Amino acid sequence: MEVSQPVIAALEAGRDNPTVGQLAAVAEALQVGLDVEFPLLPATPRIGQVLPLTLAVNVKASCELGSPRSPHRHLAYVTYIMYTCPMRAPLTVSTFRKEMSPRLNSVLHDHLPLPLQRGRGELALLVGAPEVKVLLGTHHFNPEVSAGGEGGFSIWLAELEIYGQGSDYDAAKQDLLDEVRDYVGEYLSDSTYVRAPNRARHLPYIVRAYIADREGDLAEVIFPAPDSQPIPEAEPQLAA
């Protein structure tokens, strides 16, 4: 690392994140001391608990490095954030039962996914609804509206491979929403759906529709822009 005024200015402003070895090179070039401080943690963390540990590194410069108004300057603190557990260990089911309330608070209020493990190989992940919506943010519904041959309307929802019908657009829309609710209920009640080759791809849309319905937003999620939804004109009925 080149020791120059821009480098020092970047360190002072916290724009660079050098290693301790690079800081030692800076200190040697400046012929100043290097102090490394490890503050004590307030408590011993449990396995799986994440605690921030701040490492403060001070390069103390006793020579004039800049403005004559401050002939003796200290380089600003360079702070590193380290963690006691870089990969969160899964919680056993028995421990989750004992600590259910605080663990659920961590998921629902702190928005931290909670890995759970039963036995040696069964792994689950408890995630809050807001985080699920983030994960499924790219899964959008695209209803296709068409006019029926007898003056009615039909709406095809390719993501779930179901459709609704009605005498007008509003009736067809409501029929589709009812069909979505029925299908979501069936899907989440029967484990064969998620394992079926022609149904497995529906899972992310099933989960998104379920959360939207629980939050009262199913119509807005299925029909994200109702005002811009093209409504084709119904074909006129022919007189007998």
Helix content: 25-40%
Rg over C-alpha atoms, rounded to the nearest angstrom: 30 Å
Can you tell me the residue ranges where pLDDT is under 50 for at least 5 consecutive residues?
A: 51-85, 234-240
Topology order in helix (H) and strand (E) letters: HHEEEEHHEEHEEEHHHH
Give the neighbour order of strands across the main sheet.
1-2-3
N→C terminal distance: 90 Å
The beta-strand count equals 9
Number of domains: 3
Could you report the average pLDDT, rounded to the nearest whole number?
Answer: 76
Mind telling me which CATH architecture of the largest domain this is?
2-Layer Sandwich
* β-sheet strand percentage: 15-25%
**Biggest sheet statistics:** 3 strands, antiparallel
What is the CATH topology of the largest domain? Double Stranded RNA Binding Domain
Structural class: alpha+beta
| Gross geometry | elongated
CATH class membership of the largest domain: Alpha Beta
The number of helical runs is: 9
Which terms summarize this structure?
Double Stranded RNA Binding Domain, disordered C terminus, 20% strand, YefM-like fold, three-stranded mixed sheet, alpha+beta, 9 helices, single chain, 9 strands, elongated, 240 residues
Q: Could you please describe the fold and organization of this structure?
A:
This protein is α+β, with helices and mostly antiparallel strands and 240 residues long. It has helices at 5-13, 20-30, 93-98, 100-108, 129-135, 169-189, 192-195, 203-214, 218-222; strands at 33-37, 52-60, 78-83, 91-92, 114-118, 122-126, 143-147, 153-157, 162-166. Helix 6 crosses helix 8. The protein has three domains: 5-83, no CATH class; 91-127, YefM-like fold (3-Layer(aba) Sandwich), CATH 3.40.1620; 143-228, Double Stranded RNA Binding Domain, CATH 3.30.160. The chain is elongated and about 90 Å long.
